[in-house]
TrEMBL record:
Species this chain originates from: Dorcoceras hygrometricum
Protein name: Uncharacterized protein
Bias type Low complexity, positions: 30-43, 177-186
Segments for region (Disordered): 28-47, 167-195
Length: 195
């Protein structure tokens, strides 16, 4: 069994304490100094409380003997106050964890919505990619048509120019050199009305 100084040293380390009552024993009333008046079992049976430190294994249980004169009313109140403090701390932690859990559930729902939206966008993206490929193919086909049309237009324009030159020289029977000599001959031989 550990001594009273060991108990106080454990309190200084601020460990979590779990107090377990023996199944065949009763608690001592906190307002009574004598253990015999509060116990319904025989006075020869000492009352024990096993305290388990949070970082200890069950083989290192700390046993408080209520019939021991070293264990005082103050020790019991301190132990109970520590348990109440620990309970409040655990309750607050539980509420914080519960709130965090609810927040994570909301985030998970948001994530599911985002995943669904992402799936829709992915499908739409694939559809747009196929449409882009179709349009690219159509654009290439139209570029080939335009290139052929441009080449045909250039060839037709050259053919038209060649045809025009041929028509100007021989097609009308009018020669550029002949027309200027004909004009000069008419001017040099004016018709005279008096003679």
């Amino acid at each position: 069994m550990r001594t009273r100084s060991d108990k106080r040293q454990n309190r200084k380390n601020d460990h979590k304490v779990l107090v377990v009552e023996e199944s065949n024993k009763n608690w001592v009333y906190s307002d009574s100094d004598s253990t015999s008046s509060s116990s319904s079992s025989s006075d020869s049976d000492p009352e024990y409380v096993h305290c388990l430190m949070a970082n200890q294994t069950t083989t290192e249980d700390e046993v408080f003997d209520f019939s021991n004169s070293e264990f005082t009313h103050e020790d019991l109140i301190n132990a109970l106050n520590e348990m109440v403090y620990e309970y409040r701390k655990l309750t607050q932690t539980f509420e914080e964890v519960k709130a965090e859990n609810n927040g994570l559930k909301a985030q998970l729902e948001d994530t599911d919505c985002l995943r669904t939206e992402f799936s829709k966008l992915k499908t739409e993206n694939e559809s747009l990619r196929l449409k882009f490929c179709e349009l690219t193919s159509e654009n290439e086909r139209l570029n080939l048509v335009m290139s052929s049309w441009t080449q045909s237009s250039v060839t037709l324009s050259k053919l038209h120019e060649t045809q025009k030159l041929l028509n100007d020289k021989s097609g009308s029977g009018f020669n550029v050199g002949e027309s200027s000599s004909g004009e000069t001959s008419t001017q040099s031989n004016p018709v005279d009305g008096s003679g």
